[in-house]
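Usage example:
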Amino acid sequence: MNIVILTGAGVSAESGLQTFRGADGLWEGHRVEDVATPDAFGRNPELVQRFYNERRARLLDGTVHPNPAHLALARLEREYPGQVLLITQNIDDLHDRAGSKNLLHLHGELLKCRCVVCAHTGEVRTDLTARSICPECDSTGTLRPDIVWFGEMPYHLDEISAALQRADLFVSIGTSGSVYPAAGFVAMAARNQASTLELNLEATSREFRDRRMGPASEVVPLWVAEVLGK
Ligand code: APR
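Running the assembly step on the lines above writes:
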């Protein structure tokens, strides 16, 4: 069986990273349009860099670790005899740290940067500022987080669309399904006769054939054990 899994902020919530759509509609105190759009970066690059610098520092402060949900998904990939593709909307590296390899970051990565002049991409573990210098073209202040902002094209869409056509089972974990194209993956998979399963604290859509409600750190390891027959 071919399994395609989509994860969102809910899978990292129990690692201590905030989800996007909290009760106040703000992301860490900011309106999304003020920090996660190319316009915002053009208008106020300092604010946008500071915002992502804070997120990056939090990710690396030594207290944020993969939780049992990340670890179970890595185990599934290792031990399952069929294909497992993990697509994440998360910009954190917790699936990577847990050991997932067949992993696509749909919305980019907080620990990568990209030069807006020469398109060089590289790792970044410290702050990006107006004084940061691109190691490839030597331009100053041109490095931005390699994150897909609203209005930009998500990564790996061709590969994902091909995988969804081959999928026998599509599983969505900890995502509100409010951002396209990811929100449309369940319909694409179902059109190709895949079974569909949602794992979340609450049901987000009627499009899934099956659902298990509960915290990711509990329901994901249980589901993985079931699939592995253990
Ligand atoms: N276990 C399981 N699910 C959880 C948990 C948990 N412990 N905590 C929260 N959730 C669920 C919520 O019920 C919600 O459905 O996780 C989901 C989080 O939704 P969002 O905050 O909207 O995050 P996400 O779906 O990943 O957002 C998608 O939007 O802002 C953009 O680019 C950003 O990648 C992000 C995209």
